[in-house]
Write a structure and sequence with these properties.
The chain is mostly helical. The protein has helices at residues 15-33, 38-73, 79-90. It has a domain at 21-90.
C-alpha cells in the first residue's frame, strides 16, 4: 500500500505570523499614540493639574464667601461689617478717611 504525502509549503508556516504581526502592531501603535495612550497621558496630567488649581481657587473663594455670610447671619452682626455695608450702600465716608475709587468693568 502506497501513501502519498504532501510536501508542506514554506508559505503555510508564514500564515500565523502574517496575521498576528499586523494585529500586534495595531495595538502597540494605539497604546502609544491613541486617545488614552502614553502620549495622551501627559496632556491629561497637565489638564488635571490645571483643573485642580482652578478647583482650589474656587474652594478658597467659597470659604471666603461663607465666612462673610456667617458673619452677617449668625444673629450677632459684627459692627465693622454693618459699618462697611452701610457706607457702601449710602456712598458715605468720614472726613478723616481716604476713599479710593475703582473703575468698574462695563457689561457690554
Amino acid at each position: 500500500m502506497h501513501t502519498k504525502q504532501k510536501r508542506r509549503s514554506w508559505l503555510s508556516q508564514l500564515v500565523v505570523p502574517a496575521i498576528t504581526l499586523p494585529c500586534l502592531a495595531y495595538f502597540v501603535f494605539h497604546a502609544q499614540s491613541g486617545r488614552y495612550g502614553t502620549e495622551a497621558s501627559v496632556a491629561l496630567q497637565a489638564d488635571l493639574v490645571r483643573k485642580q488649581a482652578a478647583y482650589a481657587a474656587l474652594l478658597e473663594t467659597r470659604e471666603a464667601l461663607e465666612t462673610r455670610v456667617r458673619l452677617l447671619s449668625d444673629g450677632t452682626l459684627e459692627r465693622d461689617m454693618i459699618d462697611e455695608r452701610a457706607r457702601r450702600s449710602l456712598n458715605l465716608s468720614n472726613a478723616d478717611e481716604v476713599t479710593i475709587l475703582l473703575d468698574r468693568p462695563r457689561a457690554d
